[in-house]
Amino acid sequence: MQIQVVKSKIHRVKCTGADLNYIGSITIDEDLMDAANIIQGEKVQIVNNNNGARLETYAIPGPRNSGEITLNGAAARLVSPGDVLILITYGFMAIEEAKTFKPALVFPDEATNLLK
């Protein structure tokens, strides 16, 4: 049996942009993606601490060391720049593997979204 568990989390980043006129996705500073072990095109769940919205989209890399967190396309309607977000990815694995698996947890600077 396989179960779904948290693979990675970027905790409490600020939304830096919302671009309704883009085809979709979330743009994430590539340094944050690397630290959280998130790859381009991976499904990401976004939890908005400001309004309670939860949505899923896919990751695209943004410029390194930029702190960029931009929701693109329809997802832009569910966030505002400055909103505090939690970004989560999940993976499937066997129960025995899941018992010892350690997710990548990233806690960037809340003011800049940069790695500490």
TrEMBL record:
<feature type="binding site">
    <location>
        <begin position="73"/>
        <end position="75"/>
    </location>
    <ligand>
        <name>substrate</name>
    </ligand>
</feature>
<dbReference type="InterPro" id="IPR003190">
    <property type="entry name" value="Asp_decarbox"/>
</dbReference>
<dbReference type="Pfam" id="PF02261">
    <property type="entry name" value="Asp_decarbox"/>
</dbReference>
<feature type="active site" description="Proton donor">
    <location>
        <position position="58"/>
    </location>
</feature>
<feature type="modified residue" description="Pyruvic acid (Ser)">
    <location>
        <position position="25"/>
    </location>
</feature>
<comment type="pathway">
    <text>Cofactor biosynthesis; (R)-pantothenate biosynthesis; beta-alanine from L-aspartate: step 1/1.</text>
</comment>
<keyword id="KW-0865">Zymogen</keyword>
<dbReference type="InterPro" id="IPR009010">
    <property type="entry name" value="Asp_de-COase-like_dom_sf"/>
</dbReference>
<feature type="binding site">
    <location>
        <position position="57"/>
    </location>
    <ligand>
        <name>substrate</name>
    </ligand>
</feature>
<dbReference type="GO" id="GO:0005829">
    <property type="term" value="C:cytosol"/>
</dbReference>
<dbReference type="GO" id="GO:0015940">
    <property type="term" value="P:pantothenate biosynthetic process"/>
</dbReference>
<keyword id="KW-0566">Pantothenate biosynthesis</keyword>
<dbReference type="GO" id="GO:0006523">
    <property type="term" value="P:alanine biosynthetic process"/>
</dbReference>
<keyword id="KW-0704">Schiff base</keyword>
<comment type="similarity">
    <text>Belongs to the PanD family.</text>
</comment>
<comment type="function">
    <text>Catalyzes the pyruvoyl-dependent decarboxylation of aspartate to produce beta-alanine.</text>
</comment>
<keyword id="KW-0670">Pyruvate</keyword>
<keyword id="KW-0068">Autocatalytic cleavage</keyword>
<feature type="active site" description="Schiff-base intermediate with substrate; via pyruvic acid">
    <location>
        <position position="25"/>
    </location>
</feature>
<protein>
    <recommendedName>
        <fullName>Aspartate 1-decarboxylase</fullName>
        <ecNumber>4.1.1.11</ecNumber>
    </recommendedName>
</protein>
<keyword id="KW-0963">Cytoplasm</keyword>
<comment type="subunit">
    <text>Heterooctamer of four alpha and four beta subunits.</text>
</comment>
<dbReference type="GO" id="GO:0004068">
    <property type="term" value="F:aspartate 1-decarboxylase activity"/>
</dbReference>
<keyword id="KW-0456">Lyase</keyword>
<keyword id="KW-0210">Decarboxylase</keyword>
